[in-house]
Amino acid sequence: MTAYLLRGVSVVGAAPRDLLIRDGVIADGSADGAEIVDAAGLVALPGLVDLHTHLREPGREDAETVETGSRAAALGGYTAVFAMANTSPVADTAGVVEQVWRLGREAGLVDVQPIGAVTVGLAGKQLAELGAMATSAAGVRIFSDDGHCVADPRLMRRALEYVKAFDGIIAQHAEEPRLTEGAQMHEGEVSTRLGLTGWPAVAEEAIIARDVLLAEHVGSRLHVCHVSTAGSVEVLRQAKARGVRVTAEVTPHHLLLTDELAASYDPVYKVNPPLRTAADVQALREALVEGVIDIVATDHAPHAVEDKECEWAYARPGMVGLETALPVVLSVLGERWDLIAERMSRTPARIAGLTGHGTGLAVGDPANLTLVDPSARRVVDPAELASRSRNTPYAGTTLPGRIVATFLRGEPTVLDGKAVK
């Protein structure tokens, strides 16, 4: 294993120093024989961790594979991603989650951790094999029907009770389906002007309110996916004040983009939950800084061309985001490196119980890290993305920051901004 000396790097924004990587960990002592990496002007962050990624394999390899998604993740500074269960077949058995886990190990670019489905086939009728997935080689600890809400309160309660036995987490896609039937975008002034059926904020807020009460009653762990409204923030704030075991995520696109973009009828801006108002965006930003929202998660959702480049009403919702997440967060938060490390690495690793990631980059810690050039500016070109899909809302946008290198257990997966394999 090659040793590396990162010369003159700023670790999470601190004063520049040399950082030695040897035998897969952060080391001290002699740097003899180490390969020198000129890191002057660069910032080292613990490798980013994404709790919400769609890798599409098995079943939709035309949109993404575990390998292509892993490469996109590494280029975005990630060392671990959690793959959602809405594959084909659905990851609702030990066999499917182990397949995804093994594909991730074979790719070797990031640690791929499967998320298991809560219900069989994501149908919301019967609990999936939660225990079998938890005791499988993949060691699943997070379960989600993302893309679908676990709408039945009795079933949601049973799921929360079941995973409590092994300190698992139910990650909820908060959407009351009876309030969003036929919805095309956020319900508000813009939807009224465009004549599109609206997705009301209360459809999200009502499910979050119900689920925090269930989690409080059961004493189990709840995670809320892709929070998008100011009202949801208030529900979460109150729940946390009561000591409910709830965590929450926000996506980069919900921190930056608004429902006004739907006026273009460009399906690249169609996402679930939908882009909300400027007031919601501001509330989400403030909640992220405050810690009411715990983490940033990409909800990386690649789609094949025919599923996205069509009429708005027929387009699949979702955006790719792994390669642009850190630059978008930088554009929102500025160079608040410790806060970025907390929201994009340490806290997601802690929520998931993922050892070896989200560390302080101290001597002896696994060398899972990324190097960022904060002075660089990048114009997003969809053709240059490593993802198999091109449905980015940032095409032609100039974003701050460039991922220069990513290391997974001391081995580079990205050097000089390019994937190593």
Helix-strand blueprint:
Blueprint lengths: L3 E8 L5 E6 L2 E3 L7 E4 L4 E4 L1 E6 L12 H10 L2 E6 L10 H14 L3 E4 L15 H5 L7 E2 L9 H12 L4 E4 L12 E2 L2 H6 L3 E2 L1 H18 L2 E4 L5 H12 L4 E5 L1 H5 L21 H13 L4 E2 L8 H4 L16 H9 L3 H16 L16 E11 L18 E11 L2 E5 L2 E2 L2
Parallel strand pairs: 1-4, 1-5, 6-7, 7-8, 9-10, 10-13, 11-12, 13-14, 14-15
Antiparallel strand pairs: 1-2, 2-3, 5-16, 16-17, 17-18, 18-19
Helix pairs in contact: 1-2, 4-6, 6-7
Describe this structure in words.
With 421 residues, the chain is α/β, with parallel strands linked by helices. It has two domains: 4-43 and 364-419, Urease, subunit C, domain 1 (Roll); 46-352, Metal-dependent hydrolases (TIM Barrel). The chain is built from twelve helices and 19 strands. It has helices at residues 66-75, 94-107, 130-134, 153-164, 189-194, 201-218, 230-241, 252-256, 278-290, 305-308, 325-333, 337-352, and strands at residues 4-11, 17-22, 25-27, 35-38, 43-46, 48-53, 78-83, 111-114, 142-143, 169-172, 185-186, 198-199, 221-224, 246-250, 295-296, 369-379, 398-408, 411-415, 418-419. A hairpin with a 2-residue loop joins β17 and β18.
Strand fraction equals 15-25%
Helix content: 25-40%
Structural class: alpha/beta
Please tell me how large the radius of gyration is: 20 Å
Key descriptive features of the protein:
Urease, subunit C, domain 1, alpha/beta, 2 domains, 29% helix
Give a short summary of the structure:
The protein has 421 residues and is of the alpha/beta class. The protein is built from twelve helices and 19 strands. α6 runs parallel beside α7 (230-241).
